[in-house]
Amino acid sequence: MEVIKSQSFKDMKIGPLIIALGTFDGIHLGHQKVIKLAEKISKEENIPSAVYTFSPHPLKVIKPAIAPDYLLSESQKIELISKLGIDYYLQQEFTSAFSQLDYRRFVEEYLIKGLQVKHIVVGEDFKLGSRGMGSIEKLRELAREFKFSITGIKNVEEHGNRVSSTLIRKLISLGKVKEVPEYLGRYYRLKGQVIHGFSRGKKIVGYPTANLKTAVNYVLPPRGVYACYVYYRAEKYKGIVNFGVNPTFSNNRYSIEVHIYNFNKNIYGEDLCIELVDFIRGEMTFASIKELSAQIKEDILYTARLLC
Ligand SMILES: Cc1cc2nc3c(=O)[nH]c(=O)nc-3n(C[C@H](O)[C@H](O)[C@H](O)COP(=O)(O)O)c2cc1C
Ligand SMILES: Nc1ncnc2c1ncn2[C@@H]1O[C@H](COP(=O)(O)OP(=O)(O)OP(=O)(O)O)[C@@H](O)[C@H]1O
Questions:
Q1: According to the CATH classification, is domain 187-306 in 2.60.40.10?
Q2: Could you say which ligand is closest to the alpha carbon of residue 161?
Q3: Does the predicted TM-score (pTM) go above 0.90?
């Protein structure tokens, strides 16, 4: 898959293309259906496929106060889209000027004249352009005028809920990580680099932990302990991760730290990916380090049985 990032795809002569359009933070079950259909049409018509997406998240520019944190880093998003067989990843830099572009000009100048788009796939309630004026009905009118095709996919739902990035963010922020795969299609994954903590884990508490500096500002679950799988250099391990400020100690600093089972390598500076499987307990303040260590021991035994 070719990755192209640009402020304007107006003059980018890479078409004709079949595109899936949207923000796509998560690549959840709804997104996957949209992208897979674009890929299928691309094969049938023998025209390359593209995912046309925006970065940063449009709300970071339009309404920063309510802009969400991310479900995916850029590299995770690119990897997932590439696995769906798409030919081009087109990342539109979402600037304030771009946010004011109305949907008609965007379609005409960027998609039709620029990229020579032949078919657009979106969700049926997708809204495009300045103030979200470009509904699927409006896009259908433009499709007739500019002679391209458009497919609006019926909402993918699970348990009566429309699958959306917003819903998945909410589940995570409520600690309901176990329910996430039903909408996301996989466990929620956070990627990061192992950095130095206070070096208390192994020496004082008795359990070594890898402190993670995340690749992006991920949506975070409530402070506490979670069962997880850990990926290190393509190997999968069981793990237990603590999100919090370690209130038992006085020098508080927010950290994401994971204890990997049966593992004793020095991995400072290396990349890890953790998959959140289940909530174990909230973060607690212990009267002594001995009590904290005893609780962690119990957490580790309990979590080992839970992960298979
Ligand atoms: C499974 C697990 C559970 C933890 N639970 C708590 C907790 O409830 N309260 C707390 O103060 N610290 C908790 N910790 C954090 C320890 O205090 C932490 O590992 C220690 O401070 C090491 O920090 P460092 O990596 O900065 O050296 C937990 C750590 C792990 C691995
Ligand atoms: N559940 C779904 N079913 C079908 N299509 C969907 C679904 N969710 C999103 N889409 C479509 O996938 C594309 C990308 O979605 P986008 O990221 O913009 O929205 P979203 O997942 O609903 O996120 P948010 O919750 O932030 O609105 C859009 O075309 C959108 O309409």
A1: no
A2: 2
A3: yes
